[in-house]
Design goal:
alpha/beta, Flavodoxin_CS, oxidoreductase activity, acting on NAD(P)H, Flav_short, electron transfer activity, FMN
Length: 138
């Protein structure tokens, strides 16, 4: 499993680490990769791909790094299990709904609804991230 993420403020990175903790608690392994270091090769041979990005602008993916990477998956992710997560500071989470639809249009099989956290995961949100990792690992 690969957890590929973009995090500008550290909130999504914290989510990625908590999701990893949940995966590892189920006896599975995953690798954290910042999207700036990721390549299509990180996706091709994986059964499960976990993608994380915070909401930007008018509720959209970061267009400097994450958007180009997600676009590169269009013909490579068909039939793969995918989980999405990210943090946001404003809006109503529409960016995650749009991202889910987009990944399904690429032929990805979503493991569950995308996990979103407003701002930094604390308390109950930390538990939600760990539980999300456990769900992915099953």
């Amino acid at each position: 499993m690969k957890i590929i993420y973009f995090s500008q403020t550290g909130n999504t990175e914290k989510m990625a680490n908590l999701i990893l903790q949940g995966i590892e608690s189920e006896g599975k392994k995953a690798e954290l990769i910042e999207v700036s270091s990721a390549s299509i090769d990180d996706v091709i041979n994986e059964e499960i791909i976990i993608l994380g990005c915070s909401a930007y602008g008018s509720e959209e993916l970061d267009d400097s790094e994450m958007e180009p990477f997600v676009e590169s998956l269009a013909r490579k992710i068909q039939g793969k299990k995918v989980a999405l997560f990210g943090s946001w500071g404003w809006g109503n989470g529409e960016w995650m709904t749009e991202w889910e639809k987009r990944m399904e249009s690429y032929g990805a099989i979503l493991i569950s609804e995308g996990l979103t956290v407003q701002e930094s995961p604390e308390g109950e949100d930390e538990d939600r991230c760990i539980s999300f990792g456990k769900l992915i690992a099953k």
